[in-house]
Amino acid sequence: MRRFLRSLGQLGRGAPGWGLSALLVAGVMTAALGWMVLDRASILRGGQRIELRPQPVDPRDLFRGDYVILTYEISSPPAGLWNDASELGLVDGDRVWVRILRELDPAPGAPLWRVAELFAAPPASGAGRDSVVLQGRLRGSSRVDYGVERYYVPEGEGLALEALIGAETGPDGFAPIVVEIAVDRNGRAAIGALKVRGQRVFEEPLY
Amino acid sequence: MRWLDRVTGEDVERWRAAGWVTTAGAAGIRAEMAARPPLVTPAAALAVLAAALLCFGASAFVAANWSAIPRPVKLGLFIGALWVVYAVAATAMIRGLGALGQAALVLAIGLFGASVMLTGQMYHLSGPPTDALLLWTGGAALTAAMFRSKPALAFTAGLTLLWAEWSAFQAWTAFWPFLPAWALVAVLCWRERWGAGAHLIALGLGYWAFVLGFRFGEPSLSGAAHNVIGALCVTLAGAMMALDRHPPAALPGAARERLPMIAGYAFALAAASLLTGQAFAEDAAFAPLAAAGLATMAGALWLGAQADRTGVIWLAALALAGELMMIYVRTVGTLLGSAAFFAVSGVITGAAALVAWRLSRRNRAPEPAQGAATEIAEQTAPETRT
Fold first, then answer.
1. What is the spatial distance between Cα B386 and Cα B381, in angstroms, rounded to a whole number?
2. Which residues in chain A touch residue B129, judged by CB atoms under 8 angstroms apart?
3. CB B380, CB B26: distance < 8 Å
């Protein structure tokens, strides 16, 4: 142990120092990159799956390069909840927890979920099949971002997706495109799949 | 004595003919030159070329098949490249190849940043981009601390400023987390006893206080405030340079030595403020502001060359690069378009070349008088006197 601590003191000096430094720094960076991937995989593996209907933002700006910007029915909570947010002292950039409730019999093209409550801390009562708590960040004066607003598509396939977002529900009753997200027990979300007319067109593997 | 690598046999003969060195001295210089190994041998040059071609081939192959490569393999490539570059850095340090080692560290930091961004893209991680930038900055700081590397520390400082700029821009409030982060950078600079780092710390604090600090409150006034700050700092910088060139008799020597430093600080803050003011300016006001910015930076370049202050020249050149980028960002896609941008860039580059030429002409040492050369020769080789 004493020799190990002495070698730490030599870090950055001499042959063993440079080698140890390289090992340590490369190791920490590898762990950081690995954590980014494993953290997301844990959400997909064990999270509750829900479907959200993305809304058109601005077709001209929807695509930048090969990724699509997704905005959902739950991205803009009702005005009354924003009063609650300011009473809680929440400002732009703050972390929030949002309880969303499933619409039991949504009309074609209508939102599948709606925002019911806004919290400054994780709520005591948990989620159920028709009630999910999501973790997000306040953006500006009327938005919440949940970390599922960007999806990178294979090159050349973005324009077809763009046309589907905001299109009317088909005769089979399915919204043209829905986004399936996984939500873990801490409210963190990850995109699991993109569905077009009920069929999975893009599915996210764990790794 | 690496300067000896640039001396040729003709130079030695010219010195001998001018009487600056004796015949024995010239022979000694030629012997020293012959004994030194060449900087680059043909074998080493070919090896470097082969390595570069192999790297290019590997990169081209990966790029062509990028979409077909599974994500775990891509991640493995990023991580593998990181380990290789850090191994190269450590090996270079151990063998005393300091410059190669430092270059490898800078490359490794850049590679880590690219890995973070690409991993986020591959796995659709759409959190705040400032979080990714913070992770990148943390990796850079760890590299600078563990390898005690000044280039890595400079990279860390740049990333910290970028993180603060981006975070403050999104939040429109004072970004207090910058202070503890900058304190960490200051500690690392102090640990290395890095004089230039002290200037960097002071400039960073000035940027946070004057440039970021005046961004908050009424957004419509932010640009005007920055233009005012920029104008004041330009005035201060100009006054310092003028005093440096024509110092009053009453000015103490110690104070005079610090004038270029004060001018440099003032100019750096002026450039940052002016560029920020231009970023906020309406389209109609941008052109005159950009012209004023270009004139200021060109003037600083000329003054720095006149006063032979390399630091001021470097600052002015960096500020010019920033101004050109601002013009590009604001004008590309408008009526002005790329043609105007390249025309302006050509004018600026030509002006900078003219300044550089004047500087090199001024700093070329005048040929000594023949009498002085003979005296030097007699002092160095008294046995040759008849």
1. 11
2. none
3. no
